[in-house]
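Regression report. Comparing outputs from two consecutive submissions.

Submission 1:
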Amino acid sequence: MRADLGKHVSDVSQKYLLAGETQDVALLFVPSEQIHAELAERFDDVVARAHRARVLIVSPSLLMLAVQVVQGLTRDAAMREQAHLLQAEVGRLLDDVRRVGERVEKLKAHFGQVVGDLDQIAISTDKISRRGLRLEQMELGEGPQALPNPLRREAAE
């Protein structure tokens, strides 16, 4: 058993651990939790040699755990690869928000100008109304307070 397991560890290490091409660790699957427990308990020298050869002996439950860890690492690596794209998109989004803010400020300035213009028109309208009322209240009769009538002067001449 010790020799067979040692041969499997060596074969996995030589065939599946290729520098620059594969991962640094290989998994050697043992199809039973009980067999895995016996290996760990009675063949600790073979398990240690497997670790030195970067071969992990895994049972069904440990294999599932290893697969989940590898999936998480793969997902993290993909996120890191895409991080620069995400940062670029965030930068463009912030530029858009800045432009919207500038446009809001311009619109506020335009509304402020419109309000100012309306106030000036209201002042002018008020002055025109007061002058009209004064003109309406004046007597146009024949007296020293009366306004000169240009038509009368022309008729007299």
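Submission 2:
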Amino acid sequence: MRYAELLLIHAEAVLAGGASTSDATALSSFNAVRNRAGLPSKTSITFDDIFKERRLELCFEGDYWFDLGRIDKSDAIDIISAQNRGDKYGVQNYTPTYSATDHAANDFYIDYPDNDVAKNPKLLEDPVPYTFN
């Protein structure tokens, strides 16, 4: 995990599921990543801004699949369907087969390994809802 990822996680934590934020600490973390890359600072950020910045900042680190698993599944399928899968000359070699009707929401989940389930069968039970007082 790199420091830039920690900064983006912090900005998302401050956003806390809200529509947008102008919180100084969130902007400080978010803009530190952008400024290092030579991009201008923002005065307000949304989840989409953070999501895009994670995609750009962590493009070669294999995290994007897990980020897609955190958003609405139909949106994730739309993103995958819109990817350019052509070769270096722009020739598309095959037709993408991802669509919302072809894939279920659970396509983004990975089953628990059998050895983990053997050690703890409760992993297959429904999660217990937590309440905060």
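Expected: both submissions complete independently.
Actual: both completed, but the second showed a warning that disappeared on reload.
Relevant detail on submission 2: The mean pLDDT is 85.
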